[in-house]
Write a structure and sequence with these properties.
2 copies of one chain form a homodimer. Chain A is α/β, with parallel strands linked by helices and 230 residues long. Chain A has 2 domains: 23-100, Orthogonal Bundle (Arc Repressor Mutant, subunit A), CATH 1.10.10; 108-223, Rossmann fold (3-Layer(aba) Sandwich). Helix content of chain A is 40%, strand content 18%. Chain A has helices at residues 32-50, 58-65, 69-77, 91-102, 117-124, 126-130, 161-168, 179-191, 218-228, and strands spanning 23-25, 28-30, 55-56, 89-90, 108-113, 133-140, 147-148, 154-157, 172-175, 196-199, 212-215. Chains A and B meet through helix 1, helix 2, helix 3, helix 5 and helix 6 of A and helix 1, helix 2, helix 3, helix 5 and helix 6 of B. The structure holds a DNA duplex (30 and 30 nucleotides).
Chain lengths: 230, 230
DNA sequence: GGAAGTCTGTGAAAACCTTCACGGGAGCGG
DNA sequence: CCGCTCCCGTGAAGGTTTTCACAGACTTCC
């Protein structure tokens, strides 16, 4: 505990952290924004499939989602040639492809850490399940003995984290702990081999390269709304 | 100047909806991304103020938040000259300025519609209050008589929406209803004069120009995480 | 089977955002 | 008061994302 504090490692040059966003797949560089839209396409296609639509054009999709048709075509073209000139995109086919690309064509196991108000709500939230994510267990430091929480999901004491993660082969975590605990819990998750974290805690987490983190910052969204209504 | 085929409108004009993002303030155009970071600056400054720091440099701030120092300076420079060369930014002063710019220097009244799992959790969520937002009332269609919900917030039947919004001069709404109800409820909110909506429902809402909407899409975040861990 | 019409995929251009790099103003120590 | 150092504000450069616009491919219908 008497280790030196991780202050600025150097003072001479410019150690500014750049803002990387984008991922390479298959040689090409894919903008992060494209991935977000991919999910939206997938969801729109889900609805179209429900309505028994066989085909959809880029401009129909763009109208549904509020983009331009060129953007739809360009986004999809990053991953292959799914469309048919003079026809459009086959709904079922494209949807299957997008799910495969996103990795949501199989059920993904998720753990949730921090069973407070927000955590509890997310356990019951149907939106994840509907898209192929299954929260298989939850953890909290205030749990003395394993119990069954909301939506029938078992809640364990945080000390069982490593054991249970390995047991269920869990690759994703949702983080809804306190600001104070966030970094320590994240470290444990990462050490346990988790590969992605959805972080609801308004704290910047320090993480290694290979672990992907997305932030959901509710207060931030409200604040920026506030700006636009001045 | 040989305009062999000047325009060739081909009959099909493209009325695609462009992806506007950015807002003009005081003549200048401000990128949407800047506003998001403004909230982060404000929060970092809040913490620095708590630690009694008097000044902070752009590079300290950048290290704290993971940006480059040039970006910090440029972002802040959109709104005025807050820094002092050779010194940095005065913490308290800058924080007050940012709060004024964001409009969070006064308490903002918020209504929440849809008291399901997620809605209930948000009523108890401390993160909004801490940043100056106060959820003053909530609405649901399953409420027969007014009752006191989580965190002491009154929950009314949705039919009282218009009356209560006017009564409390509420300008913001959080939307956590079902996908089916989302558009209809949004229409009522807009008709009642709400100016911004934070929408948790994974449905694209049709809204007039002057009402600002932000989407929080939890399943989307999970899906894009999934992509990155392929 | 041919002609008309539709709609994709994609270079090129435009718009947008981030980073670089530096002039010069402000503090500070002597 | 002077020189030294620190660090902001900002034009310019660089990079990324979106939009435009069109050739060509496919469907459809007669």
């Amino acid at each position: 505990m008497t280790a030196k504090r991780p202050k600025a490692p150097r003072g001479t040059s410019h150690p500014d952290t750049p803002a990387d966003s984008g991922s390479s797949l298959d040689g090409r560089k894919i903008p992060a924004a494209v991935i977000k839209r991919l999910s939206l396409y997938a969801r729109a296609l889900q609805e179209l499939e429900r309505q028994q639509a066989e085909k959809v054009s880029s401009s129909e999709l763009s109208r549904l989602l509020g983009f331009t048709s060129a953007q739809v075509r360009k986004d999809l073209a990053y991953f292959g040639q799914f469309g048919v000139p003079g026809f459009g995109y086959p709904v079922g086919d494209l949807r299957r492809n997008l799910r495969r690309i996103l990795g949501t064509d199989r059920e993904l196991q998720v753990a949730l850490v921090g069973v407070g108000h927000l955590g509890t709500a997310l356990l019951s939230y149907g939106g994840f399940t509907r898209q192929g994510f299954r929260i298989v267990c939850a953890f909290d430091k205030e749990v003395s003995a394993p119990r069954i929480g909301a939506a029938g999901i078992p809640v364990y004491h945080i000390d069982e984290l490593e054991k249970r993660l390995a047991e269920h082969a869990i690759g994703f975590a949702i983080l809804t702990v306190s600001s104070e605990a966030a970094q320590a819990v994240a470290n444990r998750l990462i050490a346990a081999g988790i590969s992605a974290i959805l972080n609801f805690v308004p704290v910047r987490l320090q993480t290694p390269e290979h672990v992907k983190i997305h932030y959901v910052d509710l207060a931030l969204e409200m604040e920026s709304l506030s700006f636009y209504t001045r």
